[in-house]
Amino acid sequence: MWLGLAIAALALPATVGVDVLGWAAKASVWLELPKAVGPASKGYAFLPGWVSLGLTFLAVLALVAIGARVMGFRMGRFLAGFTVIFWTSFGCWLVGHYAYIAQTPDKRQAMGIGWSLGLTGEAGFIVALLAGLAIGNLAPKFASWLKEASRPEWFIKTGIVILGASLGVKAIAASGLVSAIMFRGFAAIVEAYLIYWALVYFISRRFFGFSREWAAPLASGISICGVSAAIATGAAIRARPVVPIMVSSLVVIFSVVELLLLPFAAQAFLSHEPMVAAAWMGLAVKTDGAAVASGAVTDALVRAAAGARGVAWQPGWMLMTTTTVKVFIDVFIGIWAFILALIWVYAIDKKPGERVRATEIWERFPKFVIGYFLLFVGVLACGLAWPGTREGLVAATGTADVFRGIFFVMTFFAIGLASNFRRLWAEGIGRLAMVYVVSLFGFIIWIGLAISWLFFHGVRPPLVQ
Amino acid sequence: MAESGRREEIHPVERVGKEMAAMPQEPLLPVEKKLIGWSLMLGVVLLGILIWVSLKFFPA
């Protein structure tokens, strides 16, 4: 949370003309490499791209180093690993911005090219994921060396906090739509929790013969939010550490499979229902990183498909919807873990005198959510109270968004690094994987799609003016 | 953040096969059946209510 807030705090003074971070390196769609990177703000246009990029690296390195120090990481290994992760991820980000990959059909002529894949610059996310997967599976020793710095959950939560500011700016212009997205996201999550968890728990207990200790973290991991939910549930029911760890391994691997498949399915079948596609990513793809990453790719792919039909939706609204759904999921993890702790303590593992403290909800509450809402409400309130600041807020959040993109692309790379598919063949994991496959592809994806459809069909992002 | 940073640590676990084989057979307790039943029932009832509230008070 603090890292995202720090970046936003440095970027927001640009609202009143104090552009502290305007030199940050922004990637653009390119045909000639020197034009691929430049400063985010026009006020720093005099800086060469490589200087801007070097400054950006040093600034991000300094910020994450402080965080790493506070969290007690091994600093030497972290700094060396992070340097590799940053430059590899940014390289992938630039490859994704290559005109023949990224340029949308409406701008091909202006760029002098006859064809392109039209994936937008977000194709860099997929490139980073593939690069991470290649290293994670073909060079596992090198991936292991990078492990100290490879922190996908940290990266994505930083990105999500920064995204709160962008959401606030969008909300100023369309507060009705944002409140609808917020409520419908909340409603979709309530539904998903109640239906998913109960079904997965029942199937794993009744048909696969799992004990309660395995079935509860498995149900949370598959149905709710992957790693965090499996660990929180494991702690709530006092499961041994091996249980949530095994479930988490599966969650991470299957998240990557979903990340590679679902956004393209959304583009093929839901390009007329962009918010349904976005909410579906939030409900179906597990782990914060993979879900928000899927939202980012879906945003790009669905807008590209709409662009081919002559419809130009504003970027970011689908990503915002996926993020909103995911943030509500995270909020509920603590509450659900508390409910399960109550049931286990007072009904299943009943021991005289044992009690559950209400503060456990707070202990399990994901704190980055506070940063996300703080920035969202702060920026929205500022824009509504002082309309004259709106233009400045757009510029300021645009600069912060450059860092959000960097943290996102590092998340994709780190997710790939952590996904060693050989784990699927590890001794004994087949039975767990079978429940996962049956539940995920048997009903979670489809119930998620149905719930997304019920709450988000007919909702469209605003058009580009 | 410190907590979430550590949460993502995932280590390969060996001998999961033995863990699986040693898993005790546990019949569904009445309280588990209630948890599953109430959860699904609440989900279905709330579905109607939440859709109505969405359309009525939060039109897109």
Note down, in words, how this protein is organized.
The complex is a heterodimer of chains A (465) and B (60). With 465 residues, chain A is an all-alpha fold. Helix content of chain A is 73%, strand content 1%. Chain A is built from 18 helices and two strands. Chain A has helices spanning 2-11, 49-71, 75-96, 99-102, 108-111, 123-138, 140-146, 152-173, 175-206, 212-236, 242-269, 274-284, 288-308, 317-348, 359-364, 368-385, 390-418, 429-456, and strands spanning 25-27, 37-39. In chain A, strands 1-2 form a two-stranded antiparallel sheet. Chain B is mainly α and 60 residues long. The radius of gyration of chain B is 21 Å and the shape is elongated. Chain B starts with a helix and ends with a helix. Mean pLDDT of chain B is 75; it is low at 1-13. Chains A and B meet through helix 2, helix 8, helix 9, helix 10 and helix 11 of A and helix 1, helix 2 and helix 3 of B.
